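Chapter review: from sequence to fold.
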Amino acid sequence: MGQIVVADDDAMQRSFTSAVLRKMGYDPIEVADGDSALDAIITTNARIIICDINMPGLDGLTLTHRIRSADLAHYVHIFMVTGSDQIGDRRSALKAGVDDFMTKPFDASLMKVRIRAAARLIAHESALAEQYRKLQAAKGRIEADLKAAADAQRRLLPMADGSAHDCRFHSAFVPSAIVSGDMFSYFELDAKKVGFYAVDVSGHGVHAALLSVAIGHMITAEYFLAHGFNADGLPDPAALVSGLNERFVRDGCDEYFTMFCGVLDQKSDNLTFCQAGY
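The token string follows.
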């Protein structure tokens, strides 16, 4: 069932305590002083220690302080054995970090009950630690996935300082979270025309980012030419917006995105744009 450190300079008391623990299925580690007790706690997997308040070397209170300040991978349940019921001793022990007390002479049945209670607490602590480990591992995977998604989103964006024909574009992408619901781009449509757009998906986080990335994948120069001009070849960004609205908006869904898009004709200096809720 595990190891328990028994620290007492009284050989008969150590022998009695260890005998009871063996009958319970534990493997007692007997030590006669506080220094050896601290070494046993650090070098073994013992999760429980039964120590006398008065011992050679480190006394029980100092030992408790050392255990609580040690960089241990697990919590150690400390039983303090005293020779009296003095309130002062127990108050000092509790301040030091002692979990429970046993007063000499103590009977085997009472010790068994308290050891079993400590074992339940330790099992609960171990279960919580394992759950925390799993949560941290899951958190790490999620953060890695989010970072990969953010990298993919950034790769869809144009350069911060770029140009299309003679038109210069400057942009800054500063999401409030790892990923964002924003997407924008610009491209040359023909020898003199430049198309551009900016989309802001409602909400934040992964869902908004996924929708913005889907829109970014869809709106290419070819898509803009196919859906952003009318039958006469004139710029019609409203038609582009209308098509996206039909594709992405569903009845009963609260999701939406605002959009600003346009076509700049550098030959005529005309700008045709559509502002959809932006």
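Two observations follow directly from the output. The CA atoms of residues 42 and 71 lie 9 Å apart. The mean pLDDT is 89.
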